[in-house]
Structures are given as structure tokens and as C-alpha cells.
Amino acid sequence: MSDANKAAIAAEKEALNLKLPPIVHLPENIGVDTPTQSKLLKYRRSKEQQQKINQLVIDGAKRNLDRTLGKRIPLLPPPDYPQTVSLCFLFNYIYMKQCVESSPLVPIQQEWLDHMLRLIPESLKEGKEREELLESLINEVSSDFENSMKRYLVQSVLVKPPVKSLEDEGGPLPESPVGLDYSNPWHSSYVQARNQIFSNLHIIHPTMKMLLDLGYTTFADTVLLDFTGIRAKGPIDCESLKTDLSIQTRNAEEKIMNTWYPKVINLFTKKEALEGVKSEKLDAFYSCVSTLMSNQLKDLLRRTVEGFVKLFDPKDQQRLPIFKIELTFDDDKMEFYPTFQDLEDNVLSLVERIAEALQNVQTIPSWLSGTSTSVNLDTELPEHVLHWAVDTLKAAVHRNLEGARKHYETYVEKYNWLLDGTAVENIETFQTEDHTFDEYTEFIEKFFSLASEIMLLPQWIHYPMVRLDCEDLKTGLTNKAKAFANILLNDIASKYRKENQCICSEFEAIKEHALKVPETTEEMMDLISYVEKARTVGIEELILRIQESKRQMSYFLDVFLFPQEDLALNATVLMWPRKINPIFDENDELIENAKHKKENELMAKREKLILEIEKESRRMEEFTEFAELERMQQYVTDVRQLQKRIQESEEAVQFINKEEELFKWELTKYPELDKLKVNIEPYQKFFNFVLKWQRSEKRWMDGGFLDLNGESMEADVEEFSREIFKTLKFFQMKLKKELQEKRKAARKRSLEEEKIEEEPKENATITMCSTVMEQIKAFKV
Asked: Which among 604, 579, 434 is positioned nearest to 504, based on CA atoms?
């Protein structure tokens, strides 16, 4: 064992042998009259007994005083002593205790006090008041030490008598340990632990100190963002502030990665960077490096977040940013733009943006290895920092937006009735009631006055964090008030327009009736009566209405912008009294010419209709000669065209008969047209039926075999067979009936009888029916 270790062990033993007495406090009842003492003082003994007590006290005091510096002499009275003698020993013990306590003592060593003071941090010693506090602390320690030494000396010299009033609150004296083994000192384990700490405590490595100094130099007096001058920029959009600070964050991040990080890399690329670090301790060393770098970057981010939060400090509003907020009017709603929630989200997102910075910084081992999968430092801010920042910013934003919210509430209180349906309800109620033109104008003026009041309100309202722009809301409310006024204006303008249109329509009606060519004698007589009434009563009433229209027009010209068509209408109303007289003169001439013209047109239409019916009859006769099944589609088209022409002829007959009734002529009859309608129906059904059969047969024969359904085909074929049989019977009966009619007619003409009795030629339609029937039978087989 070395000499240094031996000296350390010896010093340790000396420290263990040094025993300081415990610090005790003096009993509170010393020097105070206890109840027992009071009782003894009040108790009077006889004169003889008192003298004996005094003598015993004097003798005992002298004897014990001589032995104070010798061995401990018990001051206990014999058990058979009377109570008086016990009291004597009590006063004797008190007296002896006072004598022992008054003996000189060694004060506390100054070295001990200095060691105690070194345990106190220097920051707690600064200031005049702290110096006085330290002096008081030293006096208190010295006093406690002195009291403990006195108590120790008393307990070492005197034996306390068993009297209740003499209990010692300090407890028994500490005894020296017995049976403890000090053969295994702790110094070796201490040295071992210290060496282990030095081997694992990488923070004291010189490279770590250089890294720490580099971090302090780079980050000590800087933050990621420059928060100065934000308020000096004046009102700014929250999105613009977010964009500016985001750009600053990105630039600061790039600057750090281009300046500080290369310097850090340069430290660890030197040979002396890992000097003294064993290979098995490299991971722990680099872990310490990563922790130190992470702490430096986290501290930078934390100070940046704190700096941003400090912008919103309620005690210092000179750094608050000023946000632009507008009171907008959209879809009949008064709203903030951006909304308070959007503003709060943008402010809080800046904290998130700061926290996202410097999250991709590689660790030193990852950079030195150069692998594709990089490992980044843990630079994420603690959750409590982010929660603190978010909560503080939320409270600050809510507090600074309170003024804008109250200003908004004043608008809601005063003018929300324009938006919540109250104004609409009032207007609708007013419109449903019967009001005069003057009552309308009075109600309209109330809305125009309200619009003027809103426009006189201030455009901008300034708060510590907000510049509130009310222009859009003012404009919207003003337009809303004017819109309600315009609703009423449009209402009475509409009534005014309708009145003018009614006046003009009545004049136009007079003109139209007067200038309309009558079609019948009845219309002519009605027209004469109508024009006569219009010349007298109608024109006078219209002139009075025109005068009221002129009075209302004078009001509209001040508050209402007439469209061009309304201006033309107003001018037309004023000009009608002058335009109506020439129309009456022209009416007289038209009545004379109308009658002759319509009669000639009716005669021409009757002749044209007769020619058309003859053409249709000839076309109908051609149907009996149709015998080619391949042209069935064309036959169907021809039938449809003929049916359309017959329909047009029927409409012409109705028109002609109506005209004849108006002229009081005899109604003409057209039996040939009715006959055509009856005769064409069988051909139309037959041709369509044959065409349908041809298409079905082609689909069954040429279509997919798997798509065929035997049961439905059989049903369809049976249906075709029945229908073609019915059609064949119909045309045979028709042909037979026609022959019978011709024979009856021929009996009256004997010259033609022989020809009629001859057998007629085979009918083409019957032939086609037979052919189709044979086809169906063949298909069935």
C-alpha cells in the first residue's frame, strides 16, 4: 500500500474518532418559577426546620464544588431521607449545574464555520441583506454549539437526581460505538468508484469542452427568428406573418447546417478528437456527443419558442404583432375574416413550425459512417414546453381579441335586425297591407336614413393586436338597408309600371280593336259599339290616371333610376292622348274593307279542300293494287302519309264550317272525307301487321339460336295466324259487299247488267293475305 493511501486511512480514522456533542436546546422552564417551586416558596415551615435545610444546602454545595473537576459525585439523597432533604438535593443540583455551565468552554473552530459557508452557493451570498443573514446564521450555529457543549459537560460531570422538574429534553449522551470493525476502510472502494466515473464521464473530455464552447459561441445570444420590428411593420395578414417567419426559420436552419454543423464535424475528424477513449467506449462517447448536441439545439428551439411567446406578453404590448382582421358581410352574415379560430391556428402553427426545425440533423457516427440510412439527433422539444407555449398563446390571443369581439357585438345589437328576418317580415307585412303611394315613400325614407347612419361609422378600429377593418361590413349593411329600400321602391315602381302598362294596354287595346279587321258581321257590330264607348267614357278615365302618373314620376326621378324601357313607357303614356284620335279615323275605313276580303278567302278554301279530297280518294284506290310483300315498308309509309293528309283535311273542314257559321252561310258537308277515314283503317292495320310478321320471321330465322324461346314463338305464331285469318275474312266480306252493292245499282241500269254479273278479278289485298297465311303455315310446320 502506498504512503498516500496510508495517510488517507489514518485521516479517516481520526475523523471517525472525532465526536461532536449533539446540539441540544435548553429547557424552557429553567429560570422560571414552576408550580412545585411556587408551592414550596409558599409553604412555611417552622423556624427550626428552615435553619436545618439552609445548613444542609451550604455544606453540600461546598463538598460538591470541591469535587467538580474530579470524578462524578452522585447528588442523590438516600432513599430514607425525608421530603425536605430531597428538596435540598434539588437546589443543590441546580446550583452545581449553574456552576458547571459557567465554566470556560472551547468555542467552535473557525475552520468549521468556513467549511459550512462554502456549502452555500455564491448566488445566495450576494447583497447586503444576504450578508446580514449569513452573520445571523453564523451566530445561531455558534450558539447551538456552545449550548451543546455545556449540556455535554453537565451530563459528564453531574448525576441528575430523580426529580420530575429536572427532565432533560436533549436525551442521553451519545455513546461510543462498541464492537464495530474498522479493519476494511472505504478508501479503496472510493478510488475504484472514482476511476470508474472518470472512465465513463465523457463530458469532461477535451473534445466535449470544445463542442460545448462551439455551441455557446454559436447559440448563446441568438434564436432562430428575428422577432424585432414585427410591430413596426404595421398591420399584417396572419398568413403573411406565418410565411415570413417560416422563411426565416428555413434560412436560419440552413445557416446553422452550413456553419455550426461543419465545425462540429471538423472537431471529430481530427485525430485527437478520440484521444483517451477506448474502443469499447466509443458508443458511449458518441452517445454523450449526441446528447450534448441535442441539448444545445433543444435549448435554441426552446429559447426561440419562448421569444415568440414573449411577443404576446400582456405586460409588454409594444412588441405585439398587429394583425389585419376584417368584419365582412357575406351571405347575410356578419363575420370576421380571418376568423378568430383561423388566427389562433396560424399563431399556434408558428410554434409547430419552430418545433419542426432542426429535426434532420445527423448524429456524428451516422455522418462519419456515410451510410444511406441516416440517424438523426433527438431535437424534439419536450411536451411540457409545447403545452405551455400553446396554452399561453391561446390565452393571449383570446385576451387581445376581446375588444374586436365587443365591437362586433355592437354591430349585431344595432343592425342584426336587418339580417335575421325582422326587416323582411316588416316589409312583407307592409306589402300585404293596402298602403298609399305616400305611405310607401315614408317607409322607404327610414331605410335610406339608416344607410346614411351606417356609412358615417369609422372604417378602422385599432386594438393592441388587431386593426379591425369594418369597411366591407359597413358597405354590406348599407347595401342591405338600401336593398330593403329598393325592394319597396321596386314594389311601388312595379305598381307604377303596371299602372302605366295598364294605361298603355288599354290604349293599345282600343287601337288594336279599332284597327283590327273584323272577320264577321257580329264582330263588326261589336267593334262599332266598342269604339263608340272608348271615345266617350274610356278616354276621360285614362286622362285622370295619366295625371296621377305624372305626380308619382316626379318622386321617382329623385330616388329611382328608371331603365330605358321604363323611360320609353313613361313617354308613351304621356303621348297617348294625342295618338288616339287618328286611330279612330282609320278604324272607319278598315271596317268597310274587311267584310269583302274574308268572304273571298272562304270561297277559295272550300274549292281547295274539294280538290284535296279528290286526290286522297285516288290515292286510296291505289292501296287495293298493292301486292308486293317486299315493299311492305313503303306501303306502311304511304298509309301514314295519307292518314296525315286526311287529318289536315278534317281540320280544314272544321275551319270552313266555323267561318260559314260566322258569315251565316249554309254549312257544307264532305261525306267523301268520312268514307276515306273508314276505308284506310283496315289497310293501315293490315300493312303494319304484315310488316311486323316479316320482322319477327327474320329475327327468328336469322337471329341466334340460343336466344329463341319456343313457347313465346309458338304463342306469337298463333297470334299472327289468327290475325291474318281475321284480316282475310274482312277483305273477303268487304269485296263481297261491294259486289252486292254494284249489282243492286246495276239492276237499275239494264245495259250494264251482263258486265256486273261477270266474276270479278282476284283482289290484290286478298292475295297478299293468302300468301302471308301460307307463309305462317309453312313456318309452323
From this structure: 579
CA 595, 599, 601, 607: dihedral to nearest 10 degrees? 180
Q: Whats the size of the chain, residue-wise?
A: 781
Strand partners of residue 461: 468
What are the CA-CA distances from residue 244 to residues 25, 81, 248, 250 (Å)? 69, 100, 6, 10
Domain ranges of the chain: 85-157, 201-400, 422-594, 624-738+763-780
Look at residue 697 and give its three-state secondary structure: helix
* Cell numbers for 260: 455550426
Query: From CA 320, how far away is CA 356, in angstroms rounded?
Result: 23
122-166 pLDDT, tens per residue? 877 777 788 888 888 888 888 888 888 888 888 777 777 666 555
Contact 510, 582 (CB under 8 A): no
Q: Which helix (H) or strand (E) holds 723?
A: helix 710-747
Q: Contact 465/320 with Cβ under 8 angstroms?
A: yes
Sequence-ordered alpha helix ranges (H) in 401-436: 402-415, 422-432
Find where cell 409588454 sits: 316
**Strand 460-462 to strand 333-337: parallel, antiparallel, or no bridges (unpaired)?**
unpaired
* 694: confidence class by pLDDT, cuts 50, 70, 90: low
Burial class (CB in 10 A: 0-12, 13-18, 19+), 192: exposed
Predicted TM-score (pTM) above 0.85: no
CA end-to-end distance (rounded Å), the chain? 133
Extract the C-alpha cell encoding 419: 339580417
The SS3 assignment for 581 reads: helix
Cell numbers found for residue 269: 475528424
Lowest mean pLDDT among 50-54, 226-230, 392-396: 50-54
What the block records as the C-alpha cell of 707 is 336466344
Record the cell numbers describing residue 206, joined without a space.
477535451
Closest CA to 293 of 378, 204, 386, 207: 378
The beta-carbon contacts of 196-204 under 8 Å, at least 24 apart in sequence, are 199/278, 199/281, 200/281, 200/284, 202/277, 202/281, 202/284, 202/285, 202/288, 202/289, 203/288, 203/292
Task: Report the C-alpha gap between 166 and 603 in whole angstroms.
Answer: 159
The residue whose grid cell reads 446540539 is 23
